[in-house]
Amino acid sequence: VNLFPDSAHGPYWLQAFEQSYLQEFMHGLRPNLAIIHQTDSQEEKPEVSRPLTQAIFCIDVRSEGFRRHFEEVGGNETFGFAGFFGIPICYQGFGRENETDQCPVLLKPKHRVKEVPRAYQAKAAEAFLERQSLAKTGHTLLHDLKENVITPYVMVEAIGWFFGVRLFGQTLAPTWYRRMTSWLKEQFAIPIGTTLTVDKLANEDAEEMVASQHRALIYRLLIERYGRLGMTVSHDQVERLRRQALSLLESDDPEEEPVYRLLEWDTDSHNKFLEELRQTHDINSRAVSRRKHQITRMGFTAIEQGYFVETALRIIGFTKTFARLVLVCAHGSASENNPYESALDCGACGGNQGISNARAFAAMANKAGVRQLLSKKGIHIPSDTHFVAGQHNTTTDEVELYDLEDVPSTHRKDLLRLQHDLEEAGRRNGEERLTRLPDEQESWWSDNSRNRVKRRSVDWSQVRPEWGLSKHSAFIIGRRLLTQGLPLEGRTFLHSYDYLQDPTGKYLEIIMTAPMIVGNWINMEHYFSTVDPEVYGAGSKVYHNVVGRIGVMYGSHSDLRIGLPVQTVLDGHKPYHEPMRLFAIIEAPLERITMIIARHDLLKKLIGNHWMNLVALDPVTMEFFQFEFPDHWRVIL
Q: pTM above the 0.70 mark?
């Protein structure tokens, strides 16, 4: 090495570091390769028994440990898929004003999905929105007072003690404080059962929905203006006003219009009211067309639902032997005072939590019409199979299940067993993760690991609630047999794929051009934040100030910081994340992978310019090969 100039040392040390890791990693896979070879070489495949539960997790490295423990505690089978579960949606939660794109940034969602109250909760939903409006008004008032030039001086004297409760609570007893505030929220908030609008409305239904909203608005305006007189206006008369505002109906002789007599209108009053409806309240043809377009974007047709569910199941090779309960498990993170919280959420969901995608997928897969379409395509889901959505909190290792109202009563025992297995898997995974955290000592957590991980999620002084994706190193695309039971230390993305069910390579192409690309982005973000944390990273969290809710800066003046903070990638002054280029390890025929690379310029650039390492496991010879651009495979000894 000394024969080369200093500037050339880095690449060689990096290659040596990576190859050393690769050899060690492949050695760890060897026991499973023997099992795969023995299984594949059997002429008569043994009959596969029905698992107690199956679960589809995100490919995120933090799911690796949880999946392993979940499989160990019972007869459970797991799969890995990108955390948006193949359902790209624009999502709006109940009571939320903003929408979020729940998909990788490579995609642009064409379908909108809203969270709405269940039909039997109309009154509760109305009360919920009233309380939410009251809370929002108080929140807005507080921020207006804080941002005023004079009022902050008065506020400190008047209500500063109130914030002192939060200061001492979150600093000295964060777990107790969170329990107390959660209890208060439960007393104030009204629990609402919700569902998602996954079904697309027909054009006629969209028109009626818009008309219904218009009629309610007109009726409310009449009551506000005319009190009891407004309440006497009939449904037909309100509809006439709506149609007149839309120029769908000419106004009759004033003397023959009942609303004229009821409200003592003249022609001018009538015309002014119609003009107000058009200009102020958007009851006009252009606004109606825009609103109808928004509504018809809502949800999916039955054929679209069947397509998305089929594609997802075929990509991961999950096409037979369905359990009675199938968990679709998204993930998200919970932490306090953390401007980088989205970096701990789901990258496949655009940095958001993925529960909306999981709920949408489960709702579609439970529909009888969708299952009929799948049956015609060769995927037969038994009538007693029920999909349930859940979300894994990667900071506390708790899993919350959703839409339990839809679980059949015949599946209650299965559900209780699932909840028990998730609880035990979370406890084991939490203990495993605590051993990797530098500020946790065994004496603190051996008897109470659950409380320790929960405390990290609610402690606002905690700069490292979890390690997140740090120390990741490999992206495995293949069957679960390849890694099952192996302690991969939360360092590996696991994407399920069965090359035997994909003879054309269509589904492998989807994985290599979407999830694998996102994995490379994540890898590069961590790599550069580690090798030069002050230039390509964000530096220390200690000096960060949030600016305009768009980024962070150092102190009172600096450029906006990019990359990840040192607390995410460093353990003190030593790197915790090992900066190496991502290893994509694919279980598939070599020629299939080569053909896919040749078709995509982006893959050529990433692999040809050495931004990632590509390794293949030949399913025939059980040998590993490393790809050398443009089309050569070198056997790894």
A: yes
